Amino acid sequence: MSKKLNILLAEDDENLGHLLHTFIKTKGFDADLARNGKSAFEKFTGGNYDFCIFDVMMPEMDGFTLAKEIREIDKKVPILFLTAKSMKEDKLEGFAIGADDYLTKPFSMEELLARINAILRRVERRDANEDALLMVGKIKYEPELRLLHLAEGVKKLTTKENQLLKLLVKNENEILDRQATLRAIWGDDNYFNGRSMDVYIAKLRKLLKEDEAIEIMNVHGKGFKFLVK
Q: How many whole angstroms separate alpha carbon 208 and alpha carbon 39?
């Protein structure tokens, strides 16, 4: 791969966190370390991560809650859970949330690396070239370049328009949670940011109206659903 993959690590044990962080970086990845779930969520929404490793038991926000929050805005980023428990119920809950794999402590560093690489191979096959060019109905969309290829010409999206459209498209046919989206893009789900997001949704509807099969539907009390009929 041409670019270094960026991993978000959330581990509240200071010694283990430092050890894992150092090991991951020596294996050629970029990595950020968070000491609790709340800090990890703030880093995730403010950064661009290719992989997540979360301890299940953490202060302020546990790993399961953190993963649920992240899955509201990103259905696909790989998540590997670290747990001191081997309880079957915990694993079932983790997989129900959308975990890609589990590692029970204690584990070897080489086992961790093997799990990361195995997950990345699966994801790479699934997502090959996905971000380079997407078809949104009949409209070509290049998220990395922020370009929409419309009948009237190529439209360069603003950063927030692009972030919002990318989230909608990646979560096609799924409800995109309003509050989680506001926190991810605007950093805060207050009333004024909510009004701002509604303006951006209206702009995107206007841009995409040339394809009548595309609909950005309001889901009352929850958020939005992106549909291509």
A: 36
